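User: I'm putting together a small comparison set for a docking exercise, and I want a reference complex before I start. The sequence is below, and the ligand is adenosine monophosphate. Could you produce the 3D structure with the ligand included, as structure tokens?
Assistant: Of course. I'll restate your input first, then give the structure tokens for the complex.
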Amino acid sequence: MEETLFTKIINREIPADIVYEDDLCLAFKDINPQAPLHILVIPKKHIAKISDAEKDDQDLLGYLLLKAGMIAKDQGYGEAFRLVINNGENAGQTVFHLHIHILAGRNLTWPPG
Ligand code: AMP
């Protein structure tokens, strides 16, 4: 399995402010928050980007979305939040381990940058 920064967070090789963990996923605060709430939800399975996900990952992907909604609610932002997945460098992806951004706590404009 390819080692990424996020694999190191999963393995506790580098620290992170973890807000949720179970057998399938980990959620932690973004180190460079773009909103008052900015959490990353990642699968423990290494999938580099959403376009690399396969049919077998279907349940896992649904699970991550459900968890992201639950975590937003648990953090007190259940009414208004945004989930973002950047796929590929030109879309702003910098860490090649699939992650869902949860953003909340400010007015989120549209279209995004
Ligand atoms: P993306 O640009 O969609 O690949 O998102 C990667 C995110 O990871 C960025 O928002 C970074 O601020 C965040 N990030 C990078 N390193 C860390 C870290 N060590 N702990 C928490 N978040 C990080």
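The chain has a mean pLDDT of 97. Residues 5-104 form a domain with the HIT family, subunit A fold (CATH 3.30.428.10).
User: Thanks, that's exactly what I needed.
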